[in-house]
Specification:
Length: 457
């Protein structure tokens, strides 16, 4: 059989409200043309994020009932700690309420004025935490990642030559940390190869710089290694993940992604002294070290989710279902980042909306067009999210203008996805009828969440 079916049955359903296209014109206006400000009820297919939006399994829901809510020493914590330790082989495991809480704690201790944090690509909250600490975050992406049309197996790889040159030029003492994001979310959900993780590890080790993995999508990354990297085809996902983590000194994790949890995260590391400092900060911001901002039931759901995400039937379906969208788009020659990544499809908005100048935000234009056309919500990953202003006030754009359609785990079926592909096809056909936007309000940091826009003209 060629059809790869969803490896689950649906036991509980949530109704979808079908807004009309006339309603959506008004809804978008009320939301100041920022998809983050649209009420979820008014979205038909919500591909804003794969974070915290997974469907939990019946096992996870059973775990929710089993959750031990003791303030200290909860049984759920020990079950959580055991599985994280099995996956990472790291002895110090600290629960947090989500990924950015882990980042905040780690970077408060390791960032600081005059320091650098180097990465393949820092996710936006990671970058914000780096900058908030006073440090500067710099991405060294491999060259093939800049061309959306180039098919390469590991476009999430870090450019190790650029990494080494930078360390030599600025001095290793100024580099507080290297963070490898697997998969590389902001760059297209592209995986990082084991060889690259190993190389980055060797460089970090030579200069005494700690290497952390941003592990949000570690299992998807491991599956790509199994599929694409010579020598890994017969290894189990847990063997691959253990090897990946063996090269790192620690990791930050958002359990809202590859743990199928609606909330949660953790920090794991090998350095006991650093862990002690992290726990001291944890106590004042998150909670006692055996719950760290989570209920016992959340820890239980994460522990079960972490086992489920490593099942190969699931990962095969997951990666294949993202590829499936790409194949649908190929029929209309719609530009997107190739190959398809692990958790999302990234439309190339610069080419899709090539009549909209960059300073009028083609990515936002495409996002809003998808919403107007079919009630599909995606997220702009381009000049709204990462744009900066030069001294003369001009917009400095990131290398790519993308629209990410992130697929929540185990939530939508093939017919939902067929519908999304039809919506994209229709917007592409009428693309010239959509105009760009001007910003009318923006906050000083992470502006994409709350900025307000108005259509040009
Ligand atoms: N790192 C990566 C690679 C992420 O994708 C995210 C979140 C975080 C860290 C922060 O984790 O949300 O639990 O605080 N990404 C979400 C997304 C928000 O939509 O991609 P968090």
């Amino acid at each position: 059989m060629n059809t790869i079916i969803e490896p689950f049955r649906i036991k509980s359903v949530e109704p979808i409200y079908f807004s009309s296209s006339d309603e959506r014109i008004d809804i978008l206006k009320q939301a100041y043309y920022n998809p983050f400000l649209i009420k979820a009820r008014d979205v038909i297919i919500d591909l804003l994020t794969d974070s915290g939006t997974s469907a939990m399994s019946s096992e996870q829901w059973s775990g929710v009932m089993r959750g031990d809510e003791s303030y200290a020493g909860s049984e759920s914590f020990f079950r959580f700690e055991k599985i994280v330790n099995e996956i990472t082989d790291m002895p110090f495991i600290i629960p947090t309420h989500q990924g950015r809480a882990s980042e905040k704690i780690l970077l408060s201790l390791m960032g600081g004025d005059g320091k650098y944090v180097l990465s393949n690509t820092l996710f936006d909250t990671t970058r914000a935490n780096v900058e908030f600490s006073g440090a500067e975050g710099i991405d060294f992406r491999c060259t093939e990642s800049n061309d959306p049309d180039v098919w390469a197996p590991f476009k999430g790889n870090m450019d190790t030559t650029a990494l080494q040159t930078f360390i030599e030029e600025r001095g290793p003492e100024r580099i507080s940390l290297v963070i490898l994001t697997v998969t590389d979310n902001s760059g297209g959900g592209q995986p990082v190869s084991m060889a690259n993780i190993k190389d980055v590890h060797s460089i970090c080790k030579a200069y005494g710089i700690p290497l952390f993995i941003d592990a949000c999508r570690f299992a998807e990354n491991a599956y790509f290694i199994k599929l694409r990297e010579p020598g890994y085809g017969t290894k189990s996902i847990s063997q691959i993940t253990r090897e990946m983590f063996s090269y790192a000194d620690g990791c930050t994790m958002s359990a809202k992604k590859d743990a199928f949890a609606n909330i949660g995260g953790f920090l794991a590391m090998r350095d006991g002294k650093l862990a002690e400092k992290c726990r001291n900060l944890l106590i004042i911001t998150e909670g006692f070290p055996t719950y760290g901002g989570l209920a016992g039931r959340d820890l239980e759901a994460i522990a079960i989710g972490l086992r489920e995400v490593m099942e190969e039937d699931y990962l095969k379906y997951r990666i294949r279902s993202i590829q499936y969208i790409g194949e649908k788009l190929d029929v209309f020659s719609i530009p997107y980042v190739k190959p398809t990544g692990g958790h999302a499809i990234y439309l190339d908005a610069r080419r899709f909306m090539d009549h909209v100048p960059i300073h009028q935000y083609p990515g936002l234009c495409l996002c809003n067009a998808l919403y107007l056309e079919g009630g599909v919500r995606g997220v702009e990953i381009g000049s709204v999210m990462f744009g900066k202003y030069a001294a003369d006030g001009g917009l400095v754009s990131p290398p790519m203008e993308l629209v990410r359609l992130a697929i929540p785990r185990r939530v939508y079926t093939q017919s939902h996805i067929d519908y999304v592909a039809e919506v994209i096809g229709e917007v592409y056909r009428r693309r010239r009828s959509f105009a760009g936007y001007n910003i009318i309000y923006e906050p000083p940091m992470l502006r994409h969440f709350t900025a307000r826009f108005e259509p040009v003209g």
